[in-house]
Amino acid sequence: MATTTPTPSAAKGPAPRGAAPVRRRPRGLGGSRGRALNFWLFTGPFLIGLIVFVYVPIGWSLWLSLHNAQGTVTPTEFVGLGNYADMLGDGDFVDSLVNFTIFAAIIVPITYALSLTLALLVHRIRFMKAFFRSVFFLPTACSFVVASLVWKMSLFNGLRYGMMNTVLGWFGIDSIAWLASPHPPWYWLVICSARLWLQCGFYMILFLAALQNIPRELYEAAAVDGAKPGWQTFRHITLPQLRATSVAVVLLLLIAAYQAFDEFYNILDEGRATWGRPPLVDLYLQALGANQDYGHASAGALILALLIALVTLVQGRFLGFGRGDEK
Amino acid sequence: MGNTGLYLALGVATVLFLVPFYLIVRNALSTDADITGESWRFFPTDLQWGNVKELFDDPSVPFAKALWNSTVVAVLHTLGTLLVCSLAGYGLARIPYAHANKVLYAVLFTLMVPAAVTFVPSYVLVSSLGWVSSLRGLIIPGLFSGFTAFLFRQYFLGFPKELEEAARVDGLGYWGAYWRIVVPNSLNFFAAISVITFISGWNAFLWPLVIGQDQSSWTVQVALSSYMTAQTINIHLIFMATAVSILPLVLVFVFLQRWLVQGVAQTGIKG
Amino acid sequence: MSNISRGRDWDRRGVLRAMGGVAALGGLAACGSNTGRSGGGGGSIKQMYHAYGEQGTQQAAKKFADAYGKAKVTIEWVPGEYESKLATTLLGSGAPDVFEYHPDLQLVRSRQIVPLDDIIADVKDDFLPEDITANSVDGKIYGIRMIDDPQFFFYRKSLFEKAGVKPPATFDELIDAAHKLTSGKVKGLYIGQNLKTISKPLVWSTGPHYLDADHRIAYHTDNLVETLTKARELYKSKSLLLGAPTEVWDPASFLQGLCAIQWCGIWAIPAIQKAFGDDFGIFPFPKSGAKGRQVVYNGGWSTYVSAKAKDVDAAKEFVKWLWIDQKKYQQEWALDYGFHIPARKSIAAGADKLKSGVAAEAVELFNTHGVFDDPYWTEGMFNILLDAVVNSVRDNKSPEAELDSADKKIERALKKLG
Hints:
Number of helices of chain C: 18
Strand content of chain B: under 5%
Radius of gyration of chain C: 22 Å
Structural class of chain B: mainly alpha
Number of strands of chain B: 0
Order of helices and strands of chain B: HHHHHHHHHHHHHH
Structural class of chain C: alpha/beta
Distance between the termini of chain C: 35 Å
Radius of gyration of chain B: 23 Å
Largest sheet of chain B: none
Order of helices and strands of chain C: HEHEHEHHHEEEHHEHHHEHEEHHEHHEHH
Helix content of chain B: over 70%
Shape of chain B: globular
Distance between the termini of chain B: 24 Å
Oligomer: heterotrimer
Largest interface: A-B, 115 and 110 residues
């Protein structure tokens, strides 16, 4: 995912200075065989682990998805694509996929905009930079469980002693049971604010780092050309320079949105609210939990993985993921 | 936007971002009656420092032990991940090998797959290795993060090539160049990744819950969950446990965040 | 020992909890800590409990285990997420040999538990017939009931008097009472937020159980449709406590004076007594419609032996020793740490704690209005019907249409399990 524009040295091939002119071959790694050996030496331990602890389970899941695997992970009854057909024919699961495509379309731009705004603000100031950076990054230390706890038990508690209700009370407004019913859909406010609080700081750091890497000369040159500081420079210099980071951030956010589980599960009544149910919560309730229906669970999870890969690919084509890499 | 405007905006954002922390601390140091009382109290009338003692004295939840376990696991998890993933990242970024791109895509593919897909088979696999209830069962399966390896690759792509090549010419080979030149010059980035990895190790919940067997092996997250499922919820204890569980991370952040930004600035995720 | 049905009914919070957070960081896989011993070798038995809330229970479980002479018994005490942890561990090689759970056809069909007829045969009559039936599939007994935990409504007597309300006997009276008892800061009724718990008595109060004797759908009646419609009206009125942070297994909302009536269970009696003295009473879920019945839900826990146990016979022998022979321990387990009804009639008969006051009333309700779980009704079916209830009551959807679509899915599940 992320990425791209390799740095000049990577993009341009052999560095022009230093070692390059020396034609003498470095000892011990001559030839493609030596390079292959070294490649496997470096990546071997990781790849073995990845195969054993990630690919084998993925393959196992794939196999389970083709079987009737209730209450067992060594099933014998082959059902072909039956589980997939069941999942795709199941209105609730398909609904959750559709809902979460909408959710992603909303939460991703908001998180993107907010993180970038914070980064721009922090980048501009001269004093207390470290302080503000810390403040916005601090929520990253909290797990989704912690956030759900604070949100549900204290901040958006539906009773009079919830903080939001206390604030409303000061204006004479009745307490709102934020999570009781989807009419009106207050639960989106609760969920989205928790997600923004947890995530923005991390992406802000990515943007901040990228902002630091924009060469000053670009701004100076723009100023000479008569560009006004503010929107114009942002539009024509900052934003294009942030393209690679933006692609990476959007990609990470998309994946995170589709894989949402914790805060929805915890805040929305252990997943019992039938609205705003993400695909993973739906799978959990239907199959992964005590129901032990691993065949359907695997089929559903793999459909979700395919959807994520697809969205990622489309987003990549659209925003230019990997262009730098292909050189 | 003028300077005043900037600081004003940042000030407002700061307040909003700190509210949840304020709530955690306020609730942690209150009595339940203060928290659920009819009128809002900004601060507890009496700071209940006794809540700290109550948390650590509770015989049914070994909280101090859980803190220690989490520390051990998060540290080993971090060290292991750094070692394995940085080597892989370097190999992918720097060693010209015909099939390197295919390997890279295989690594990236794992990011698309939700953990739910692999959880149950992973557990069965690890348990059949006999690793249940052991440190290796808790730590080793988590070391192979495609994301971290990918971040390292992006970083190493941007590492000045000249330095290494000089070293290799001196007869160090890839291996020697990596350890003598690349690593010592990349400490910022390693620090940044450590922070991110440490958080994930510290906040992990489901794997420790399933792999850990007796109470003496609970991590902080598992202990925290036991407070939430107790018979009658003690709001002050839950929040005190929460406060204590995030404190180490907050400290790590406050002291290491400078490196974090610098480190991230050196990744491939940049403009 | 806390809420009985915790594993099945109320508490699954945070499952797969780590995943979202971890995924947000891009799939850094979950990892955590353990310094514990490795699984037992020969001659050892692993026994798994969910984490009971009462002080002393864990120590008691350990004490019982240590007292067993024939094998080394180790205890695994699981906080939260008991159900999913059990489901997962049963698949691997670290699986418990003996564990507590609820009757579930699924475990039998996938051959995860073994019949216990031989060890219970001699004392079968000392258990309630319903507790035996609830653990029987195809005529074989798979579980031994450890404790019974009835659930009912708690109410404040003083508030009832002030509002001139009597304990309601019908659903309409309950709704009426909820309206009358609602005043300013106190809501009339608390039935939980996610409806997971209340959905059981709500359905049963209309007359039938989920399934009939031939394991066919029985819940779908006009009476249920009508009851769900009324429940929706109640939900929309301002008389229901909504937005409380804890579910109904926790008496906190009642104790904080946020509501006049709350659904909860026998385990809450000591805490409520401490707070309100004599100023509280209990009543069953009132009947709905002419064909309806009053309902007390009899939850509880039973013990099972894993089919994958290292030594099935040794595990069965241990279960017989602890849950059949050691009546002293069984009594201690049910009565010394909290309030539960011992599963053995002979022990329950001698339990002084349950002979007076509200506790005695609870036992009486248990005996007259108790409804037990049906082992043929699986977790999957429960989830499907619960969705229909939630959609009807909390989300304004048509009960008839919701039940029709639930029927289809449940039919499919029934067919699959045979």
